[in-house]
Design brief:
By secondary structure, this protein is an alpha/beta fold. Helix content is about 40%, strand content about 15%. The protein is built from 13 helices and 10 strands. The chain has helices spanning about 30-40, 60-65, 65-75, 90, 100-105, 115-135, 165-185, 205-210, 225-230, 235-240, 290-295, 315-330, 350-355; strands spanning about 10-15, 45-50, 80-85, 140-145, 190-195, 220-225, 245-250, 255, 275-280, 305. The strands form 2 sheets. Strands 1-2-3-4-5-6-7-10 form an 8-stranded parallel β-barrel, surrounded by 5 helices. A two-stranded antiparallel ribbon has the order 8-9. Helix 1 links the parallel strand 1 (about 10-15) and strand 2 (about 45-50). The longest helix has 23 residues, at about 165-185. It is globular and about 80 Å long. The relative contact order is 0.14.
């Protein structure tokens, strides 16, 4: 596991996750043009979706350091660096409940559609490519999803048979263990985004997964407070509890406005009509001042990466507002105490005197 400081430290940022912006239209259709776009908006880093061939050939990146050096050079020329590879859609396919087979087939090549075991094998191979590609890119971390076998049984009605959830997490860990071992071999963390729809969707489920993995050093967390606010989970205390495992940070806002008609489950409504919905930075209810303070306190020195998902504001405006928002919130930490000027250089005799122990 990448060493994370236990004393205040300054995080890096601002970064931007490219997945929500990628398209066949310029400037969002190539690494060169999208990195220039990001830099022009004030971002210093880009988080690259590993499945998007417009930005990266993942297999080639896994097998060619020269190719990775080319990608690094393209980004450097435009004034940004790659913060992490995102493998969210690949990790999702490591574990898929049959209820979602058809829906998730779209994340995989056509030749494995309708073939869940072949799709899983393909996804696992892609995850192994991403481990090697991350190392070739000089990256110490990545971000992903766990996938889900148990999520359809989230609500305990009908009553779950004894052992069902334990079996699901045992199998989930069985599938991930060799992948995480490969990441260990390459010195790369996997920051799992704690997310509804995944078997790991809150702190307790992360603990269950980690236990089945025997506390694997590369099993980490991509911290995204928006999903916690929508669950009504204490996202500041989450940092207090799990800060040693937080290896990545998605800066995303959300709001929760329950009514007499809907609450957390939001009544199958579209995003604009949900009680809980994602917003652009500063437009929601997330306490980012508290979050950045907590992360600084615990020595998080990774990237702060904008993930834009807003049901109201345009992506272009959200991206333009994101970099200055993140930069305003990053705390440049100090190694001095504010009252150092009033301190002295006490010796042991003085200390014992202050405690009334002169004659002890």
């Amino acid at each position: 596991m990448t060493h994370r400081n236990t004393t205040p430290s300054t995080m890096r940022g601002a970064g931007i996750f490219l997945a929500q912006f990628a398209s066949d239209d310029a400037p969002f259709n190539s690494l060169g043009s999208v990195s220039r776009w990001a830099a022009d908006l004030g971002y210093g880093g880009i988080q690259v979706p590993a499945w998007d061939s417009r930005f990266i050939d993942l297999k080639k990146a896994a097998n060619s350091k020269d190719y990775c050096d080319e990608l690094i050079g393209i980004c450097a020329q435009n004034g940004v660096v790659i913060t992490e590879l995102s493998t969210h859609l690949l990790g999702q396919l490591v574990a898929v409940h049959p209820a979602y087979d058809t829906l998730f087939d779209s994340f995989a090549p056509e030749q494995v559609h309708g073939k869940p075991w072949e799709r899983q094998k393909w996804a696992s191979e892609q995850m192994l490519h991403a481990a090697k590609a991350s190392r070739n890119l000089g990256l110490d971390g990545s971000v992903s999803f766990t996938g889900a076998l148990a999520f359809p049984y989230l609500y305990p009605w009908p009553q779950r048979p004894d052992g069902l959830i334990d079996e699901a997490f045992t199998e989930l860990a069985r599938r991930w263990r060799p992948i995480l071992d490969a990441y260990e071999d390459n010195g790369v963390d996997v920051g799992f985004e704690i997310h509804p729809g995944e078997d790991v969707f809150d702190g307790i489920t992360f603990e269950m997964f980690l236990e089945k993995l025997e506390n694997h050093p590369r099993c980490c967390i991509n911290y995204d407070p928006s999903h916690f606010l929508l669950q009504q989970l204490d996202y500041l205390q989450f940092i207090d509890i799990y800060h040693e495992r937080i290896s990545a940070f998605h800066v995303k806002d959300a709001e929760f406005n329950p009514s007499g008609r809907q609450g957390v489950y939001s009544g199958y409504q579209g995003w604009t009509n949900r009680a809980g919905r994602f917003r652009s930075l500063g437009d929601g209810q997330v306490d980012f001042a508290g979050i950045f303070s907590r992360l600084a306190q615990y020595g998080y020195d990774g990237w702060a990466v904008l993930e834009w998902e807003c049901c109201l504001k345009s992506a272009e405006v959200g991206a333009a507002e994101g970099a200055p928002f993140i930069k305003r919130h990053i705390i440049e930490t100090t190694d001095k105490a504010f009252d150092d000027f009033a301190g002295g250089s006490p010796d042991k005799a003085q200390l014992r005197g202050l405690l009334g122990l002169q004659d002890a």
